[in-house]
Protein backbone atom coordinates (compact mmCIF):
# COMPACT_ATOMS: atom_id res chain seq x y z
CA UNK A 1 0.00 0.00 0.00
CA UNK A 2 1.50 3.37 -0.95
CA UNK A 3 2.84 5.29 2.00
CA UNK A 4 2.42 2.76 4.81
CA UNK A 5 4.18 -0.62 5.02
CA UNK A 6 2.10 -1.53 8.08
CA UNK A 7 -1.11 -0.95 6.11
CA UNK A 8 0.28 -3.18 3.35
CA UNK A 9 0.94 -5.88 5.97
CA UNK A 10 -2.62 -5.57 7.28
CA UNK A 11 -4.09 -5.95 3.79
CA UNK A 12 -1.91 -9.01 3.17
CA UNK A 13 -2.85 -10.53 6.54
CA UNK A 14 -6.59 -10.04 5.92
CA UNK A 15 -6.30 -12.30 2.89
CA UNK A 16 -6.14 -15.34 5.17
CA UNK A 17 -9.93 -14.96 5.51
CA UNK A 18 -11.89 -17.21 3.14
CA UNK A 19 -13.32 -15.43 0.09
CA UNK A 20 -11.23 -12.32 0.71
CA UNK A 21 -8.92 -11.27 -2.13
CA UNK A 22 -6.75 -8.21 -2.57
CA UNK A 23 -9.57 -5.77 -3.34
CA UNK A 24 -11.78 -6.84 -0.43
CA UNK A 25 -8.83 -6.90 1.96
CA UNK A 26 -8.00 -3.32 0.97
CA UNK A 27 -11.60 -2.24 1.47
CA UNK A 28 -11.68 -3.93 4.90
CA UNK A 29 -8.43 -2.31 6.02
CA UNK A 30 -9.55 1.19 4.98
CA UNK A 31 -12.95 0.68 6.54
CA UNK A 32 -11.43 -0.34 9.89
CA UNK A 33 -8.90 2.52 9.87
CA UNK A 34 -11.40 5.17 8.85
CA UNK A 35 -14.43 4.16 10.86
CA UNK A 36 -14.01 1.17 13.16
CA UNK A 37 -10.77 1.46 15.13
CA UNK A 38 -12.36 0.39 18.41
CA UNK A 39 -14.09 -2.64 16.94
CA UNK A 40 -10.93 -3.43 14.96
CA UNK A 41 -8.92 -3.52 18.18
CA UNK A 42 -11.61 -5.65 19.80
CA UNK A 43 -11.44 -8.08 16.86
CA UNK A 44 -7.65 -8.28 17.18
CA UNK A 45 -7.94 -9.23 20.85
CA UNK A 46 -10.72 -11.79 20.43
CA UNK A 47 -9.01 -13.30 17.39
CA UNK A 48 -5.74 -13.81 19.27
CA UNK A 49 -7.53 -15.33 22.23
CA UNK A 50 -9.62 -17.63 20.04
CA UNK A 51 -6.63 -18.85 18.00
CA UNK A 52 -4.66 -19.55 21.18
CA UNK A 53 -7.32 -20.92 23.48
CA UNK A 54 -9.96 -22.74 21.42
CA UNK A 55 -9.26 -26.47 21.29
CA UNK A 56 -11.61 -29.41 21.17
CA UNK A 57 -14.02 -30.65 23.83
CA UNK A 58 -12.64 -33.84 25.39
CA UNK A 59 -16.10 -35.39 25.34
CA UNK A 60 -17.63 -34.49 21.93
CA UNK A 61 -14.60 -33.04 20.05
CA UNK A 62 -16.54 -29.86 19.18
CA UNK A 63 -14.63 -26.55 19.35
CA UNK A 64 -14.30 -25.42 22.94
CA UNK A 65 -12.03 -23.26 25.10
CA UNK A 66 -12.93 -25.41 28.12
CA UNK A 67 -12.01 -29.12 28.57
CA UNK A 68 -15.73 -29.92 28.35
CA UNK A 69 -17.85 -27.70 26.06
CA UNK A 70 -21.02 -25.89 27.09
CA UNK A 71 -23.20 -28.34 25.15
CA UNK A 72 -21.78 -31.40 26.90
CA UNK A 73 -21.87 -29.62 30.26
CA UNK A 74 -25.53 -28.62 29.84
CA UNK A 75 -27.44 -30.91 32.20
CA UNK A 76 -30.80 -30.03 30.66
CA UNK A 77 -29.96 -31.70 27.32
CA UNK A 78 -31.22 -35.19 26.53
CA UNK A 79 -28.53 -37.79 27.31
CA UNK A 80 -30.27 -40.60 25.45
CA UNK A 81 -29.73 -39.32 21.92
CA UNK A 82 -26.33 -38.76 20.30
CA UNK A 83 -25.95 -37.01 16.94
CA UNK A 84 -22.73 -37.75 15.06
CA UNK A 85 -21.53 -35.07 12.59
CA UNK A 86 -18.41 -34.62 10.47
CA UNK A 87 -17.51 -31.08 11.53
CA UNK A 88 -18.31 -28.29 14.01
CA UNK A 89 -19.92 -26.43 11.08
CA UNK A 90 -22.41 -29.27 10.63
CA UNK A 91 -23.10 -29.24 14.37
CA UNK A 92 -23.80 -25.50 14.20
CA UNK A 93 -26.13 -25.98 11.20
CA UNK A 94 -28.17 -28.65 13.00
CA UNK A 95 -28.25 -26.65 16.21
CA UNK A 96 -29.52 -23.57 14.34
CA UNK A 97 -32.05 -25.32 12.09
CA UNK A 98 -33.58 -27.98 14.29
CA UNK A 99 -34.99 -28.23 17.78
CA UNK A 100 -32.57 -31.05 18.63
CA UNK A 101 -31.80 -31.12 22.36
CA UNK A 102 -29.56 -34.18 22.62
CA UNK A 103 -25.80 -34.73 22.67
CA UNK A 104 -23.27 -34.53 19.82
CA UNK A 105 -20.12 -36.23 18.69
CA UNK A 106 -17.88 -34.52 16.11
CA UNK A 107 -15.72 -36.79 13.92
CA UNK A 108 -13.55 -33.91 12.64
CA UNK A 109 -13.45 -35.65 9.26
CA UNK A 110 -14.86 -38.69 7.50
CA UNK A 111 -13.45 -42.13 6.74
CA UNK A 112 -11.00 -41.52 3.93
CA UNK A 113 -8.09 -43.96 3.90
CA UNK A 114 -6.39 -42.13 1.01
CA UNK A 115 -6.16 -38.99 3.17
CA UNK A 116 -4.95 -41.02 6.13
CA UNK A 117 -8.27 -40.67 7.97
CA UNK A 118 -9.18 -43.95 9.63
CA UNK A 119 -11.24 -44.90 12.71
CA UNK A 120 -8.45 -43.70 14.99
CA UNK A 121 -8.33 -40.15 13.58
CA UNK A 122 -12.11 -39.88 13.85
CA UNK A 123 -12.05 -40.80 17.54
CA UNK A 124 -14.23 -43.88 17.01
CA UNK A 125 -12.70 -45.68 20.01
CA UNK A 126 -13.84 -42.75 22.13
CA UNK A 127 -17.28 -42.92 20.47
CA UNK A 128 -17.52 -46.66 21.19
CA UNK A 129 -16.59 -46.08 24.82
CA UNK A 130 -19.34 -43.49 25.02
CA UNK A 131 -21.91 -45.85 23.52
CA UNK A 132 -20.72 -48.41 26.07
CA UNK A 133 -21.66 -46.10 28.95
CA UNK A 134 -25.21 -47.34 28.45
CA UNK A 135 -27.04 -43.98 28.55
CA UNK A 136 -27.45 -43.56 24.80
CA UNK A 137 -30.42 -45.23 23.10
CA UNK A 138 -30.36 -43.65 19.65
CA UNK A 139 -27.44 -42.53 17.50
CA UNK A 140 -28.43 -40.08 14.75
CA UNK A 141 -25.88 -40.38 11.95
CA UNK A 142 -25.67 -36.96 10.28
CA UNK A 143 -22.60 -37.38 8.05
CA UNK A 144 -22.79 -35.70 4.66
CA UNK A 145 -24.58 -37.52 1.81
CA UNK A 146 -21.30 -37.95 -0.14
CA UNK A 147 -19.61 -41.23 -1.02
CA UNK A 148 -17.22 -40.92 1.92
CA UNK A 149 -19.96 -39.67 4.23
CA UNK A 150 -22.13 -42.67 3.33
CA UNK A 151 -19.24 -45.08 3.92
CA UNK A 152 -18.66 -43.46 7.29
CA UNK A 153 -22.39 -43.71 8.08
CA UNK A 154 -22.30 -47.43 7.26
CA UNK A 155 -19.34 -47.95 9.58
CA UNK A 156 -20.98 -45.91 12.34
CA UNK A 157 -24.21 -47.90 12.07
CA UNK A 158 -22.28 -51.13 12.68
CA UNK A 159 -20.57 -49.51 15.66
CA UNK A 160 -23.94 -48.47 17.09
CA UNK A 161 -25.46 -51.92 16.66
CA UNK A 162 -22.38 -53.49 18.31
CA UNK A 163 -22.96 -51.16 21.27
CA UNK A 164 -26.67 -52.04 21.46
CA UNK A 165 -27.70 -48.58 20.25
CA UNK A 166 -30.30 -47.89 17.54
CA UNK A 167 -28.71 -46.10 14.56
CA UNK A 168 -30.81 -43.61 12.52
CA UNK A 169 -29.89 -41.57 9.47
CA UNK A 170 -31.11 -38.17 8.24
CA UNK A 171 -33.81 -38.56 5.58
CA UNK A 172 -32.73 -38.09 1.97
CA UNK A 173 -35.12 -36.76 -0.66
CA UNK A 174 -36.37 -33.77 -2.55
CA UNK A 175 -35.51 -30.52 -0.66
CA UNK A 176 -38.49 -28.46 0.52
CA UNK A 177 -39.26 -25.65 -1.89
CA UNK A 178 -37.20 -27.32 -4.62
CA UNK A 179 -38.60 -28.04 -8.07
CA UNK A 180 -38.44 -31.62 -9.33
CA UNK A 181 -37.11 -30.37 -12.67
CA UNK A 182 -33.96 -29.08 -10.98
CA UNK A 183 -33.34 -31.87 -8.46
CA UNK A 184 -30.34 -34.02 -9.42
CA UNK A 185 -31.06 -37.52 -10.76
CA UNK A 186 -29.60 -39.42 -7.83
CA UNK A 187 -31.70 -37.53 -5.29
CA UNK A 188 -34.85 -37.87 -7.40
CA UNK A 189 -34.32 -41.62 -7.87
CA UNK A 190 -33.76 -42.01 -4.12
CA UNK A 191 -36.84 -39.94 -3.25
CA UNK A 192 -38.93 -41.92 -5.75
CA UNK A 193 -37.76 -45.24 -4.36
CA UNK A 194 -38.32 -44.14 -0.75
CA UNK A 195 -41.81 -42.73 -1.37
CA UNK A 196 -44.04 -42.80 1.67
CA UNK A 197 -47.70 -43.66 2.09
CA UNK A 198 -49.97 -40.69 2.82
CA UNK A 199 -52.27 -41.15 5.80
CA UNK B 1 -22.18 -20.46 18.79
CA UNK B 2 -23.21 -23.72 20.47
CA UNK B 3 -20.60 -25.01 22.86
CA UNK B 4 -18.08 -22.18 22.86
CA UNK B 5 -18.77 -18.63 24.08
CA UNK B 6 -15.34 -17.52 22.83
CA UNK B 7 -16.18 -18.74 19.33
CA UNK B 8 -19.46 -16.81 19.53
CA UNK B 9 -17.46 -13.69 20.48
CA UNK B 10 -15.12 -14.22 17.53
CA UNK B 11 -18.02 -14.53 15.08
CA UNK B 12 -19.61 -11.38 16.50
CA UNK B 13 -16.30 -9.47 16.33
CA UNK B 14 -15.70 -10.48 12.70
CA UNK B 15 -18.93 -8.69 11.77
CA UNK B 16 -17.14 -5.34 12.10
CA UNK B 17 -15.64 -6.10 8.67
CA UNK B 18 -17.54 -4.47 5.81
CA UNK B 19 -19.78 -6.83 3.84
CA UNK B 20 -19.49 -9.56 6.48
CA UNK B 21 -22.76 -10.75 8.02
CA UNK B 22 -23.50 -13.57 10.42
CA UNK B 23 -23.10 -16.39 7.91
CA UNK B 24 -19.78 -15.16 6.47
CA UNK B 25 -18.43 -14.40 9.94
CA UNK B 26 -19.22 -17.97 10.99
CA UNK B 27 -17.54 -19.37 7.89
CA UNK B 28 -14.47 -17.20 8.53
CA UNK B 29 -14.21 -18.25 12.17
CA UNK B 30 -14.46 -21.97 11.36
CA UNK B 31 -11.99 -21.62 8.48
CA UNK B 32 -9.41 -19.94 10.73
CA UNK B 33 -9.88 -22.45 13.55
CA UNK B 34 -9.80 -25.50 11.30
CA UNK B 35 -7.09 -24.56 8.86
CA UNK B 36 -5.37 -21.21 9.44
CA UNK B 37 -4.44 -20.84 13.11
CA UNK B 38 -0.98 -19.46 12.37
CA UNK B 39 -2.18 -16.90 9.85
CA UNK B 40 -5.10 -16.07 12.14
CA UNK B 41 -2.67 -15.27 14.97
CA UNK B 42 -0.56 -13.24 12.56
CA UNK B 43 -3.66 -11.28 11.50
CA UNK B 44 -4.53 -10.61 15.16
CA UNK B 45 -1.07 -9.16 15.77
CA UNK B 46 -0.91 -7.01 12.63
CA UNK B 47 -4.47 -5.80 13.16
CA UNK B 48 -3.75 -4.65 16.71
CA UNK B 49 -0.56 -2.90 15.63
CA UNK B 50 -2.27 -1.21 12.67
CA UNK B 51 -5.24 0.01 14.75
CA UNK B 52 -2.90 1.39 17.40
CA UNK B 53 -0.08 2.80 15.33
CA UNK B 54 -1.45 3.99 11.98
CA UNK B 55 -2.23 7.70 12.06
CA UNK B 56 -1.98 10.34 9.37
CA UNK B 57 1.12 11.71 7.64
CA UNK B 58 1.79 15.24 8.92
CA UNK B 59 2.57 16.37 5.39
CA UNK B 60 -0.07 14.78 3.12
CA UNK B 61 -2.58 13.40 5.67
CA UNK B 62 -2.45 9.93 4.07
CA UNK B 63 -2.46 6.91 6.41
CA UNK B 64 0.98 6.38 7.90
CA UNK B 65 2.58 4.86 10.98
CA UNK B 66 5.46 7.34 10.66
CA UNK B 67 5.18 11.14 11.10
CA UNK B 68 6.00 11.50 7.39
CA UNK B 69 4.71 8.77 5.08
CA UNK B 70 6.85 6.79 2.64
CA UNK B 71 5.36 8.64 -0.34
CA UNK B 72 6.25 12.09 1.04
CA UNK B 73 9.66 10.88 2.17
CA UNK B 74 10.46 9.42 -1.25
CA UNK B 75 13.01 11.84 -2.76
CA UNK B 76 12.65 10.37 -6.24
CA UNK B 77 9.05 11.58 -6.64
CA UNK B 78 8.26 14.74 -8.58
CA UNK B 79 7.89 17.72 -6.20
CA UNK B 80 6.28 20.00 -8.78
CA UNK B 81 2.93 18.22 -9.08
CA UNK B 82 0.46 17.78 -6.22
CA UNK B 83 -2.62 15.58 -6.56
CA UNK B 84 -5.47 16.34 -4.13
CA UNK B 85 -7.82 13.47 -3.29
CA UNK B 86 -10.70 13.01 -0.87
CA UNK B 87 -9.55 9.81 0.81
CA UNK B 88 -6.63 7.37 1.17
CA UNK B 89 -8.71 4.91 -0.90
CA UNK B 90 -8.72 7.37 -3.81
CA UNK B 91 -4.97 7.85 -3.42
CA UNK B 92 -4.48 4.07 -3.57
CA UNK B 93 -6.68 3.83 -6.69
CA UNK B 94 -4.67 6.52 -8.51
CA UNK B 95 -1.38 5.05 -7.39
CA UNK B 96 -2.41 1.59 -8.64
CA UNK B 97 -3.99 2.67 -11.95
CA UNK B 98 -1.75 5.47 -13.19
CA UNK B 99 1.94 6.12 -13.57
CA UNK B 100 1.69 9.27 -11.46
CA UNK B 101 4.96 10.02 -9.68
CA UNK B 102 4.18 13.33 -7.94
CA UNK B 103 3.03 14.27 -4.45
CA UNK B 104 -0.39 13.89 -2.82
CA UNK B 105 -2.61 15.72 -0.41
CA UNK B 106 -5.51 13.87 1.24
CA UNK B 107 -8.50 15.97 2.34
CA UNK B 108 -10.02 13.18 4.47
CA UNK B 109 -13.44 14.36 3.34
CA UNK B 110 -15.06 16.94 1.07
CA UNK B 111 -16.60 20.34 1.70
CA UNK B 112 -19.93 19.56 3.32
CA UNK B 113 -21.13 22.28 5.71
CA UNK B 114 -24.14 20.19 6.79
CA UNK B 115 -21.78 17.48 8.07
CA UNK B 116 -19.57 20.08 9.74
CA UNK B 117 -16.81 19.64 7.17
CA UNK B 118 -15.34 23.03 6.27
CA UNK B 119 -11.93 24.24 5.04
CA UNK B 120 -10.46 23.70 8.51
CA UNK B 121 -11.44 20.01 8.76
CA UNK B 122 -10.01 19.37 5.28
CA UNK B 123 -6.65 20.88 6.23
CA UNK B 124 -6.87 23.57 3.58
CA UNK B 125 -4.70 26.00 5.59
CA UNK B 126 -2.01 23.33 5.53
CA UNK B 127 -2.57 22.86 1.80
CA UNK B 128 -2.27 26.63 1.20
CA UNK B 129 0.96 26.74 3.18
CA UNK B 130 2.28 23.92 1.04
CA UNK B 131 1.34 25.72 -2.19
CA UNK B 132 3.10 28.76 -0.75
CA UNK B 133 6.38 26.84 -0.47
CA UNK B 134 6.83 27.61 -4.16
CA UNK B 135 7.86 24.14 -5.36
CA UNK B 136 4.48 23.09 -6.73
CA UNK B 137 3.54 24.12 -10.28
CA UNK B 138 0.45 22.05 -10.96
CA UNK B 139 -2.31 20.93 -8.63
CA UNK B 140 -4.34 17.98 -9.96
CA UNK B 141 -7.77 18.10 -8.37
CA UNK B 142 -9.01 14.51 -8.12
CA UNK B 143 -12.08 14.90 -5.91
CA UNK B 144 -15.04 12.69 -6.79
CA UNK B 145 -17.43 13.84 -9.54
CA UNK B 146 -20.29 14.29 -7.07
CA UNK B 147 -22.02 17.56 -6.19
CA UNK B 148 -19.92 17.99 -3.05
CA UNK B 149 -16.77 16.83 -4.82
CA UNK B 150 -17.32 19.39 -7.58
CA UNK B 151 -17.91 22.17 -5.04
CA UNK B 152 -14.70 21.16 -3.31
CA UNK B 153 -12.89 21.14 -6.66
CA UNK B 154 -14.12 24.67 -7.35
CA UNK B 155 -12.87 25.88 -3.97
CA UNK B 156 -9.52 24.13 -4.44
CA UNK B 157 -9.07 25.69 -7.89
CA UNK B 158 -9.44 29.16 -6.36
CA UNK B 159 -6.95 28.23 -3.66
CA UNK B 160 -4.46 27.08 -6.31
CA UNK B 161 -4.80 30.23 -8.39
CA UNK B 162 -4.36 32.35 -5.25
CA UNK B 163 -1.10 30.49 -4.63
CA UNK B 164 0.06 30.97 -8.21
CA UNK B 165 -0.36 27.25 -9.00
CA UNK B 166 -2.07 25.90 -12.11
CA UNK B 167 -5.16 23.81 -11.18
CA UNK B 168 -6.16 20.84 -13.36
CA UNK B 169 -9.08 18.43 -13.05
CA UNK B 170 -9.47 14.78 -14.03
CA UNK B 171 -11.24 14.47 -17.39
CA UNK B 172 -14.92 13.53 -17.29
CA UNK B 173 -16.55 11.55 -20.07
CA UNK B 174 -17.59 8.14 -21.32
CA UNK B 175 -15.67 5.36 -19.51
CA UNK B 176 -13.41 3.22 -21.70
CA UNK B 177 -15.11 -0.01 -22.66
CA UNK B 178 -18.51 1.41 -21.73
CA UNK B 179 -21.44 1.42 -24.13
CA UNK B 180 -23.14 4.75 -24.87
CA UNK B 181 -26.51 3.11 -24.34
CA UNK B 182 -25.71 2.46 -20.69
CA UNK B 183 -23.86 5.67 -19.81
CA UNK B 184 -25.93 7.96 -17.58
CA UNK B 185 -27.40 11.10 -19.15
CA UNK B 186 -25.29 13.62 -17.26
CA UNK B 187 -22.05 11.94 -18.24
CA UNK B 188 -23.14 11.58 -21.86
CA UNK B 189 -24.20 15.24 -22.07
CA UNK B 190 -20.88 16.29 -20.54
CA UNK B 191 -18.87 14.07 -22.89
CA UNK B 192 -20.85 15.37 -25.87
CA UNK B 193 -20.30 18.99 -24.88
CA UNK B 194 -16.58 18.43 -24.21
CA UNK B 195 -15.96 16.58 -27.49
CA UNK B 196 -12.40 16.91 -28.72
CA UNK B 197 -11.00 17.45 -32.20
CA UNK B 198 -9.24 14.42 -33.67
CA UNK B 199 -5.78 15.09 -35.09
TrEMBL record, chains A, B:
Any GO BP: DNA recombination
One Pfam family, short name: RecR_C
Entry-linked Gene3D superfamilies: 3.40.1360.10, 6.10.250.240, RecR Domain 1
Zn-finger region bounds: C4-type: 57-72
PROSITE patterns given in the database record: RECR, TOPRIM
Function per UniProt: May play a role in DNA repair. It seems to be involved in an RecBC-independent recombinational process of DNA repair. It may act with RecF and RecO.
Family the entry assigns: Belongs to the RecR family.
Protein name as catalogued: Recombination protein RecR
Organism per entry: Frateuria terrea
Amino acid sequence: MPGSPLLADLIEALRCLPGVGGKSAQRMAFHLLERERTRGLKLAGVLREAMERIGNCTRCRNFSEEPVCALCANASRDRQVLCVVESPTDLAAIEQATGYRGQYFVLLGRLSPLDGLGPEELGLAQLSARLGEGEIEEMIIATNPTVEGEATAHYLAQLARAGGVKPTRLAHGVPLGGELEYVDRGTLAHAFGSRQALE
